[in-house]
Amino acid sequence: MDASSDPYLPYDGGGDCIPLRELHKRGTHYTMTNGGSINSSTHLLDLLDEPIPGVGTYDDFHTIDWVREKCKDRERHRRINSKKKESAWEMTKSLYDAWSGWLVVTLTGLASGALAGLIDIAADWMTDLKEGICLSALWYNHEQCCWGSNETTFEERDKCPQWKTWAELIIGQAEGPGSYIMNYIMYIFWALSFAFLAVSLVKVFAPYACGSGIPEIKTILSGFIIRGYLGKWTLMIKTITLVLAVASGLSLGKEGPLVHVACCCGNIFSYLFPKYSTNEAKKREVLSAASAAGVSVAFGAPIGGVLFSLEEVSYYFPLKTLWRSFFAALVAAFVLRSINPFGNSRLVLFYVEYHTPWYLFELFPFILLGVFGGLWGAFFIRANIAWCRRRKSTKFGKYPVLEVIVVAAITAVIAFPNPYTRLNTSELIKELFTDCGPLESSSLCDYRNDMNASKIVDDIPDRPAGLGVYSAIWQLCLALIFKIIMTVFTFGIKVPSGLFIPSMAIGAIAGRIVGIAVEQLAYFHHDWFIFKEWCEVGADCITPGLYAMVGAAACLGGVTRMTVSLVVIVFELTGGLEYIVPLMAAVMTSKWVGDAFGREGIYEAHIRLNGYPFLDAKEEFTHTTLAADVMRPRRNDPPLAVLTQDNMTVDDIENMINETSYNGFPVIMSKESQRLVGFALRRDLTIAIESARKKQEGIVGSSRVCFAQHTPSLPAESPRPLKLRSILDMSPFTVTDHTPMEIVVDIFRKLGLRQCLVTHNGIVLGIITKKNILEHLEQLKQHVEPLAPPWHYNKKRYPPSYGPDGKPRPRFNNVQLNPIDEEREETEEEVHLLNSTTL
Length: 839
Prior knowledge:
Elements: H1 23-26, H2 41-45, H3 66-83, H4 88-129, E1 132-134, H5 142-145, E2 163-165, H6 166-170, H7 177-205, H8 214-221, H9 232-247, H10 255-270, H11 274-277, H12 280-299, H13 302-313, H14 319-339, H15 363-393, H16 400-415, H17 419-422, H18 425-433, H19 467-490, H20 500-524, H21 529-532, H22 544-560, H23 564-574, H24 580-597, H25 602-610, H26 627-630, E3 643-644, E4 648-649, H27 650-659, E5 664-668, E6 676-681, H28 682-695, E7 704-706, E8 722-723, E9 734-736, H29 741-751, E10 755-760, E11 763-769, H30 770-781, H31 791-797, E12 811-812, E13 815-816, H32 828-836
Parallel strand pairs: 3-5, 7-8, 9-10
Antiparallel strand pairs: 1-2, 4-7, 5-6, 10-11, 12-13
Helix pairs in contact: 4-9, 4-10, 4-12, 4-14, 7-9, 7-16, 8-25, 9-10, 10-12, 12-13, 12-14, 13-14, 13-23, 15-19, 15-20, 15-22, 15-24, 15-25, 16-19, 18-20, 19-20, 20-22, 22-24, 23-24, 27-28
């Protein structure tokens, strides 16, 4: 499928984000370089030239330079500190700058908590709207409608005169086949209406509002620019459509998209503070704190949110960002608790507390649940990625509205007959987590009272399962199969869709089934040696709800490969320190089993599928290739385009910009010397030349462009030269051609580089960009690893800069023009080695 025909694939827009699926179409001659890095002290002290507006900014779908952004922030901080003692106004500006970080995370937390409460309330109301309506107060959901009724019985607490089903309103029947069919039809009608409205709003107003958002958030936090992804339109449409998507009954959750919503809030508020609006690296510190706030309101887990931001999404996480993330999560949780959207004085719907301890034998079924979670995660990742890849490569992907309607229709038709699939997924998890008490009327708690028990140790001892429990188990088995299949096809459609809740629901269903099985095994065989020591007759030994919680954590861990943050999130959900060991055992088992089939989590898999320029710090580079094997240009590529520091005119530079697609150019001393001077960005060159033509008199096409500190002497009749030293990066990162790629990849990951130059004895040979590394890693993953030539062969590939006569070899743009007679001809084996290293 042509990417340009799909409005949801805007990632081919240029820059260094060329989707890997498109690389074979570009050929080996396509090179895209990225901007420079930290400016040297010479550049920082060169204050004679007036700053040029727009220089130092980034185009859409490009990667930021972390080192240069940190340098800009340090320079801004020094400038503010040097002026704060001059006047009271400067002191006020200094204090405002110092406190702006806390202000922006406070505003982000307030907005995230308020929007999460609004989404929770609206989603609950619209979910119940599929079944009926409250006549006494239209804005009440089913539970709220029956709160004040005096005619509600304990057995039928969900029935009251104020709440009317659609069958009662339309045909006047509350029971019977006609009532069932009418409620069935209305359920499907509302589900399709909500789904159609959600996908239509996304397609028309904000294509970026679809999906989970976490893969893109991870990519943005790694330094990538996606204009509009965190904008106000995306925030508004995602908030509205998230409510519609959850209410439609699709197998998705709102927890993942809440991270996207919180990051939108953080991005919008960061523009109120110059400290963050003008610095992309500082802005990403705010986004890290916002992602913590998003998880905090999604699960009611402030500490888990901070750890989630640290473990899963953040690329750069200094200590002060840890404090501000904690504060943002605290504020967001406080606001959500004040709103109290569920009416239970809790931050989430499925908060539970257990009072029965776990025993050592139970670690075995807990580990089995971890194995199931790892297998489910591996299956889901492979199946979902295969389906998403098929969607992108076939005509089916051209009709996103039709796809959503079909998935919603199938989900609604199959879900309605089963009470556990008809339930909202969060309510299903709540029912599965809840332990059976004296006030529970669920069929999962339909146990038979054992009147022959000799003694009763606990108030509610383990009892034999009744018909209701066996019926519920069969329904849960069908619900498990349904959830597994539909989640594979739902995640990735063009509506806001989170993965946390569906994965937890699958694990909770499996865990509850296993918990009931273990409970009945302990009841009927309490004399077995594994039960005899700790489970006596009449005691409450097994808690099936605990198994559901452990299964939910295991399945979510198998899909996302989270560990520490996941355990803390689930611990905060239950409020029990006593169950951390079972959770840790299940989560680590699920991660080990999942890693046996592939080390990628679902978010990393979608990042790779979409071709985002993301270098995962978790991956290990164990190959033996060198920088010379990855750099551009290659032997058969066009020559490397370079600039000289004082020998080119404005027309020469503009022609080079127009004739090439590179985003940066190395600057050398001269064609004869070839020594590196610095690196100039394409965008900065274009802006600087346009600004000079408008503001400086005498700048024409034949004007000499000077990157040197001192302007060379020119004839008197020459036009005025153009000094562009202020836009030159005087200290670009360089590596030699023999540097192992393991070190180069490590440098790119830890310093956040966009490119580095490759030199040989100080002579510029080529350039390695982030895109080149991603191409190389992708080819290694496809088991087409380039052969690593021996070290002496690499020395022969780059002849000395000077010939036998002592004169420099003739070069153009740093690439050898004439063949070197002194070097022997390459053998067939060497040619094969060289060709095999070409990406």
